[in-house]
Amino acid sequence: MSSNIVLTVDVREGTGKGAARAARREDLVPGVVYGGKLGPVSVNLRGNEIRKALLGGHFLSNMIELDHEGKRQTVIARDIQFHPVSDKAMHIDLFRVDEDTKINVDVPVHFINEDACPALKRGGVLNIVRHDVELLCPAGSIPEAVEADLTGLDIGDSIHISAVTLPKGVKPTIADRDFTIATLQGSRAVLTDAEEETDEAPAEPEAIKQKGDEE
């Protein structure tokens, strides 16, 4: 995935809470750029650009270009702190990368072909264990999502990470087990119907036995 987010950045001279509060009063978002061969640098980013980028989605799973006086540097957002009341971005950590830098990133799971899933047709329920999975991938090839196919799955079946096709060069960070992403479970109504059928099953043999006794 190539970068389509460009953020204007200024080096922040002051450090500490006072400098950060002063930046926020001017609708700037304090941040730190770190990683690579260079040391950490305190920066300020434009509040309106951050809000626009966040509204666009995938901010934490997309390469970002920082524009500092016409010079650009590629980073990825590693952490964002939000105000607990206003939900405005308060601080951002940015990690220097290039397209081949391997990073860990959480990627959402999309479930497809629900109409071809026998379990759901029978009134079953999709129990999602993981709404996203942590993947190790090149910064330039971060998938927007991975797809889990529900085709042919019935009640009692499970979807594991091995059933999900990942892009080339992308691997799950959990490598020691084939972890579960979702299960197909029977709903209460389906289970009740099954229990009723089980309860009624012995009635027929008993009726035959009684008939035989009468004869």
Automatic annotation (TrEMBL):
Chain intervals with Acidic residues compositional bias: 193-203
What's a single GO BP term from this record?
A: translation
A Pfam family recorded for this sequence: Ribosomal_L25p
Q: Supply the InterPro entries for this chain.
A: Rbsml_bL25/Gln-tRNA_synth_N, Ribosomal_bL25/Gln-tRNA_synth, Ribosomal_bL25_b-dom, Ribosomal_bL25_C, Ribosomal_bL25_long, Ribosomal_L25_dom, Ribosomal_uL5_bac-type
Q: Name one GO molecular function term.
A: 5S rRNA binding
- Enumerate the residue ranges of region (Disordered): 190-215
Q: Name one GO cellular component term.
A: cytosolic large ribosomal subunit
Q: Say yes or no: keyword Ribosomal protein present.
A: yes
Bias (Basic and acidic residues) occurs at 206-215
Its keywords, alphabetically, are: Ribonucleoprotein, Ribosomal protein, RNA-binding, rRNA-binding
| SUPFAM superfamilies, sorted | Ribosomal protein L25-like
Domain named Large ribosomal subunit protein bL25 beta: residues? 102-186
Q: Which residues form the Large ribosomal subunit protein bL25 L25 domain?
A: 7-94
Q: Which domain of life is it from?
A: Bacteria
Name the PANTHER family for this protein: RIBOSOMAL PROTEIN L25/GLN-TRNA SYNTHETASE, ANTI-CODON-BINDING DOMAIN-CONTAINING PROTEIN (PTHR33284), RIBOSOMAL PROTEIN L25_GLN-TRNA SYNTHETASE, ANTI-CODON-BINDING DOMAIN-CONTAINING PROTEIN (PTHR33284:SF1)
What this chain does, per the entry, is described as: This is one of the proteins that binds to the 5S RNA in the ribosome where it forms part of the central protuberance.
Provide the family line: Belongs to the bacterial ribosomal protein bL25 family. CTC subfamily.
The record describes its quaternary structure and partners as: Part of the 50S ribosomal subunit; part of the 5S rRNA/L5/L18/L25 subcomplex. Contacts the 5S rRNA. Binds to the 5S rRNA independently of L5 and L18.
| Protein name as annotated | Large ribosomal subunit protein bL25
